[in-house]
Specification:
Blueprint (H helix, E strand, L loop, with lengths): L4 E6 L10 E6 L12 E6 L2 E7 L14 H10 L2 E12 L9 E2 L3 E4 L28 H13 L9 E4 L8 H9 L4 E3 L2 H10 L3 E11 L10 H28 L4
Parallel strand pairs: 1-4, 1-5, 5-10, 7-8, 8-9
Antiparallel strand pairs: 2-3, 3-4, 5-9, 6-10
Helix pairs in contact: 2-5
Bound molecules: hypoxanthine (HPA).
């Protein structure tokens, strides 16, 4: 894996990176507006990391109002080349049980009305279509997978992420439809984040954490308490995985 800085985009349940020894906070202004907050820069288990909580440091920005373009542009312009995105999701298929980590390999976009591209046709590049056959960086995905094997985290090593609009949760019928479409996980932030990362040629992969069984996949209703409880347990494992993965990313770099 090559050089450039490394960033973590934190999702619900990861609005702060406790072990980050903060050296700087950088407020970025972008042509697309303000990112979710300043970039927090510091040493994380011996490596430099930039941290950006997607929903803001106090978790106040709902998924459909996240300024994804500003977030990705700010990271790119800070010299970031590698982005580890952490995201809370609902589990659709049987393997996706609450608390489990999953490393998706595909994504389907069901979001609408979000600013979803840097290529609006008015830039120098004119009309551009980026390849999205494999939406996540496979090298980074494999680093996550090998890290989770080493720590015996029992992660699900592939799966299709359904990106829904939110902020409401889905109906049971919508989840049935997503499953028929081949989706294993459902979350509200995977798009346009994944596509924008590709447009900026960032090395991007997602560490998804199952917060709940998706609508209609368990007996009861989905509560915020349930989501918070499951995430709190799972984030301990994510916080063990991240330093290992970041170390591996840095080791593999040419000097
Ligand atoms: N659906 C969509 N997004 C989510 C869910 C869900 O069930 N759980 C956590 N994020």
């Amino acid at each position: 894996m090559s050089g450039g800085r490394l960033a973590i985009i934190g999702g619900t349940g990861l609005t702060q990176l406790k072990d980050l020894e903060i050296t700087r906070r950088e407020v970025m202004h972008t042509p697309y507006g303000e990112p979710s907050g300043p970039l927090t820069i510091g040493q994380y288990h011996g490596h430099e990391v930039l941290f950006l909580p997607r929903h803001g440091s106090r978790h106040t920005i709902p998924p459909h109002q996240v300024n994804y373009r500003a977030n990705l542009w700010a990271l790119k312009n800070a010299g970031v080349e590698t982005v580890l995105a952490v995201a809370a999701v609902g589990g659709i298929t049987d393997a996706m049980t609450p608390g489990r980590i999953a490393i998706p390999d595909q994504i389907i976009d069901y979001t609408w009305s979000r600013y979803h591209t840097f290529f609006d046709g008015n830039g120098e590049g004119g009309v551009t279509h980026v390849d999205m056959t494999y939406p996540y960086n496979e090298g980074l995905r494999q680093t996550l997978i090998f890290g989770s094997r080493e720590l015996e985290l029992d992660a699900v090593e592939r799966g299709t992420y359904a990106a829904t609009q939110g902020p409401r949760l889905e109906t049971a019928a919508e989840i049935d439809r997503l499953e028929r479409d081949g989706c294993d996980l459902v979350g509200m932030t995977g798009m346009p984040e994944t596509a924008l990362a590709r447009e900026l040629e960032l090395r991007y992969a997602c560490c998804a954490v199952v917060a709940n069984r998706a609508a209609g996949r368990s007996d009861g209703l989905i509560t915020m308490e349930e989501i918070a409880r499951n995430l709190a347990g799972a984030m301990d494992r994510v916080k063990r995985l991240l330093p290992l993965v970041i170390g591996r990313c840095r080791e593999a770099e040419p000097t």
